[in-house]
Design a protein that fits this description.
With 183 residues, the protein is of the alpha+beta class. Helices cover 15% and strands 33% of the residues.
């Protein structure tokens, strides 16, 4: 067979192979294959960790701003205690990002809190995981911030998951739900 004849056969063979492969992938008429970014946890089995985190009933921030502070869409409070909720209700731990990942897998992140004028008791923070068994979270609340106003803290989550967090000072308290993920 001459060289001129081999080239068209080669092209025909490759065209047939592409047609055969294209037939293996089917989509509804007029639709395109899904973009990977559009695939979400709803496509996961309902008992998968990703699906469970997607169903976490995160608390949306209500925008309530502590006295004397700058308004922020992430502020959340009830008029006596305030904090900031992470964007989209998700505390994200990733290399080079904020927070600390410990060797045991626990995840520590800073959280600001504010106590109103009528709340003079020390802040305490507690919480538990909603979507699976886990030890309770731990909180570090340093002294020296006065009886009211701003109070720094860090919260250590023993694991990723859906967490309910409650900050209390005397009879005043504020509760929110957040997702905790590690990338």
């Amino acid at each position: 067979m001459g060289a001129a004849m081999k080239k068209p056969l080669y092209l025909i063979e490759h065209a047939l192979l592409l047609v055969a492969l294209a037939g293996c992938i089917t989509f509804a008429k007029g639709s395109n294959p899904p973009h990977p970014a559009s695939i979400n946890s709803q496509d996961e089995p309902s008992d998968s960790p990703l699906a469970k985190l997607a169903s976490c009933p995160v608390t949306p921030p209500n925008g309530s701003t502590p006295p004397g502070e700058q308004p922020s869409a992430l502020n959340h409070g009830n008029g006596v205690i305030w904090t900031e909720i992470w964007p989209e209700g998700t505390v994200v731990f990733e290399p080079g990002g904020p927070g600390h990942i410990y060797a045991d897998g626990s995840l520590e992140m800073k959280f600001p809190w504010w106590r109103g004028e009528g709340v003079r008791d020390p802040l305490s923070i507690e919480g538990h995981r909603l979507d699976a068994p886990s030890p309770p979270l731990r909180a570090d609340i340093p002294e020296g911030y006065g009886d009211t106003g701003f109070q720094a803290s860090s919260i250590t989550f023993p694991s990723e998951g859906c967490w309910q967090v409650t900050g209390s000072a005397g009879s005043a308290s504020l509760t929110f739900v957040t997702r905790v993920i590690r990338k």
